């Protein structure tokens, strides 16, 4: 099948206008485009310029009109609340049009921003689709982020309305969201006029008169309203993701290119069509949730599962398999971490014995590097193709993958396979020269990026150019390093920047360092991602204390962990920290994070010639060894 795959890829590169015009036939347009690809403002490219459509119409209404009204659109499965129910396309249309009516009634208009800070409940999807219906730009903030992170995003997006809920449910218990929201609003410099709050039965939230409205009350009198026609190039959403500084990047996605690319990917990559069941076990707060819990499956008229629970402990490592069997899931998508967690709790796959997984055709993994052990365990136990694929918040859909709905190719462990049509992936050295097969380098994508990828960073075009386009002219810098083998298979090995990947969650070490430095006792901090058997990576902090600090080490560590949890959120999973006398630096003052990471993970490293004080590396190695890393014998 490799030839068929290669031909399709070649056609997408030689004639992108034709390729994407064909793909766009799966979408209903209000009016057609002037040009498929407008490159007149390169490096800012505009797909389907001049066309009009509505993403919500394509994801909801048109399926009702086509006779799918009675089909389940969203199957909600919540083991943590013991609740399961399906929402049909007709019910989804009713909910979304009414919520859009509520937004419209309080003055939310096209182009206004709406922040969504909610747990994994169907109302979160209604909220996103309602924004899309009226052309408001949503920005979903992951529930595991703390008030301060929410405030940062509120200040940047400047929403007119925030939708939130009284609580989320985590295995550790009920997490009250409303106090976090109140705290964020108190911190934010931007004033938010309206909040719509979903009160869940597990916890009642107190409402602030004049600002907060109870969800049911707001919906009770709201009119149903129709979809508005939007420009293909109008923004659909902003999704903040970690950059190398503490200030997150607001990735902007458009309407037209996004709908076309996601619909194309559902069929060609995930092998999903109308009527099929698809499950992406992620969270709507991440890009996987945006693309493959909400928009992708709904755009093609499939049934999407929305799961409020974990792979293990809710209640056991068989939860995923039972859910797949019960809801006839054809393609399943999760992160390698989830498989590692299941493998740890059920190494022999005993929970698989009592389920019939004949409905399941493919398992897709992404979000972090998939180590071959995890891949082989899943293949061995599930007896299904297990497909690693690589992408990022910025791209919005897969960059390298095995096209399971078009022309599957051989699976090679450790590789997300080949470039997806539309993406020209190259591996280059620091000078921008392509490296030979099997040689490592920076992974870049030749411009223009295909439809559905980021169009810019929210109100910060300069940062978009500086972060992604300025290092190699004519190329998008992915921030990942890796290589291609002799067959053109890509291998993504690491990041080239200070981003770490904790349980598939992308976090900035720069942000950790900022927070640690807020502590009165800390003069300087360095945070690195160290290897972790379950989560792939976990953050490890080394701090230099101010002169004269006499705080007990255990007490200091407890305070630092508490501070990170309070400022970034529980998702940071910050449990490793120690004081050191000095950090290793170059003579120009750059902290040698990469060298420290290699020491911690027992990898080869060179002592840079520019090191200020070589003894600092010994100090760090001893500390890391004491913390259970950096095996002293290597
Ligand atoms: N709202 C509030 N808190 C949240 C949250 C949310 N939406 N999501 C996570 N948290 C909290 C968790 O309760 C936990 O808090 P704790 O320190 O009090 O226990 C913390 O954030 C870390 O959560 P998580 O990353 O889920 O780790 P875990 O140790 O609870 O579970 C796994 C480990 C492997 C089971 C879990 O990480 C997992 O399911 N990973 C799948 C990865 C994934 O879906 N990635 C998305 C990208 S594809
Ligand atoms: P996010 O933007 O949160 O989706 O994170 C994207 C980053 O996660 C990528 O840039 C990679 O560093 C990493 N990543 C995602 N999928 C894979 C994969 N299949 N293999 C290796 N790394 C991956």
Automatic annotation (TrEMBL):
Residues 72-447 form the AMP-dependent synthetase/ligase domain. InterPro entries: ACAS_N (IPR032387), AMP-bd_C (IPR025110), AMP-bd_C_sf (IPR045851), AMP-binding_CS (IPR020845), AMP-dep_synth/lig_dom (IPR000873), ANL_N_sf (IPR042099). Keywords: Ligase. Transmembrane segments: none annotated. Pfam families: ACAS_N, AMP-binding, AMP-binding_C. Residues 513-590 form the AMP-binding enzyme C-terminal domain. Residues 7-59 form the Acetyl-coenzyme A synthetase N-terminal domain. One of its GO terms (molecular function) is propionate-CoA ligase activity. Its EC number is 6.2.1.1, 6.2.1.17. GO terms for cellular component: intracellular organelle lumen. It comes from the Bacteria. The keyword Isomerase does not apply. PANTHER family: ACYL-COA SYNTHETASE, ACYL-COA SYNTHETASE SHORT-CHAIN FAMILY MEMBER 3, MITOCHONDRIAL. NCBIfam families: PRK00174.1 (NF001208). Belongs to the ATP-dependent AMP-binding enzyme family. This is AMP-dependent synthetase and ligase. The lineage of its organism: Bacteria, Pseudomonadati, Pseudomonadota, Gammaproteobacteria, Alteromonadales.
């Amino acid at each position: 099948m490799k030839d068929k795959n290669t031909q399709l890829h070649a056609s997408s590169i030689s004639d992108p206008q034709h390729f994407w015009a064909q793909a766009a036939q799966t979408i209903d347009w209000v009016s057609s485009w002037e040009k498929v690809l407008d490159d007149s403002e390169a490096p800012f490219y505009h797909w389907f310029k001049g066309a009009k459509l509505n993403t919500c119409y394509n994801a909801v209404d048109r399926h009702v009109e086509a006779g799918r009204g009675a089909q389940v659109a969203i199957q909600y499965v919540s083991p943590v609340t013991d609740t399961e129910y399906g929402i049909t396309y007709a019910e989804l249309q009713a909910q979304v049009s009414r919520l859009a009516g509520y937004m419209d009634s309080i003055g939310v208009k096209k182009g206004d921003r709406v922040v969504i800070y909610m747990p994994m409940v169907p109302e979160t999807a209604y909220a996103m689709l309602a924004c899309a219906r009226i052309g408001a730009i949503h920005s979903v903030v992951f529930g595991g982020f703390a008030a301060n992170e929410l405030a940062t995003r509120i200040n940047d997006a400047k929403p007119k309305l925030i939708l939130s809920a009284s609580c989320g449910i985590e295995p550790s218990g009920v997490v009250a969201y409303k106090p976090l929201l109140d705290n964020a609003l108190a911190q934010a410099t931007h004033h938010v006029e309206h909040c719509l709050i979903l009160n869940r039965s597990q916890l009642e939230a107190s409402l602030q008169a004049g600002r907060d409205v109870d969800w049911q009350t707001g919906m009770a009198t709201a009119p149903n309203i129709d979809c508005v026609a939007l420009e293909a190039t109008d923004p659909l959403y902003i999704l903040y993701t970690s950059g190398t500084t503490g200030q997150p990047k607001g990735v902007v996605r458009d309407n037209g290119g996004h709908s076309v690319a996601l619909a194309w990917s559902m069929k060609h990559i995930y092998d999903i069509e109308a009527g099929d069941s698809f499950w992406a076990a992620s969270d709507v707060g991440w890009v996987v949730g945006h693309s493959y819990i909400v928009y992708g499956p709904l755009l093609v008229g499939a049934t999407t599962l929305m799961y409020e629970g974990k792979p293990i402990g809710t209640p056991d490592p068989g939860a995923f398999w039972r859910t797949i069997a019960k809801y006839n899931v054809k393609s399943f998508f999760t992160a390698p971490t989830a498989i590692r967690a299941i493998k740890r709790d059920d190494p022999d796959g005993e929970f698989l014995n009592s389920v019939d997984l004949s409905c399941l055709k493919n398992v897709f993994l992404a979000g972090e590097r998939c180590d071959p052990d995890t891949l082989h365990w899943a293949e061995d136990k599930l007896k299904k193709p297990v497909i690693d694929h690589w992408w990022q918040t910025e791209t919005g859909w897969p960059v390298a993958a095995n096209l399971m709905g078009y022309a599957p190719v051989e699976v090679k462990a450790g590789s997300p396979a080949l470039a997806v049509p539309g993406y020209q992936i190259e591996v280059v050295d620091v000078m921008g020269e392509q490296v030979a097969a099997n040689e490592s380098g920076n992974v870049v994508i030749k411009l223009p990026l295909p439809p559905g990828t980021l169009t810019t960073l929210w109100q910060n075009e300069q940062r978009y150019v500086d972060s992604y386009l300025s290092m190699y002219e004519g190329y998008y810098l992915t921030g990942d390093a890796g290589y291609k083998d002799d067959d053109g298979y890509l291998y993504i090995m690491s990041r080239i920047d200070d981003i770490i990947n904790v349980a598939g969650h992308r976090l900035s070490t720069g942000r950790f360092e900022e927070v640690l430095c807020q502590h009165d006792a800390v003069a300087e901090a360095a945070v690195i991602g160290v290897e972790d058997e379950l989560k792939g990576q976990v953050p490890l902090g080394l701090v230099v204390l101010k002169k004269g600090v006499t705080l007990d080490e255990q007490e200091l560590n407890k305070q630092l962990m508490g501070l990170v949890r309070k400022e970034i959120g529980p998702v940071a999973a910050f449990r490793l920290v120690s004081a050191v006398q000095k950090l290793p630096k170059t003579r120009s003052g750059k902290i040698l994070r990469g060298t420290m990471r290699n020491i911690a993970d027992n990898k080869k490293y060179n002592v840079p010639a520019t090191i200020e004080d070589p003894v600092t590396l010994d100090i760090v190695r001893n500390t890391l060894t004491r913390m259970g890393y950096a095996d002293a014998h290597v």
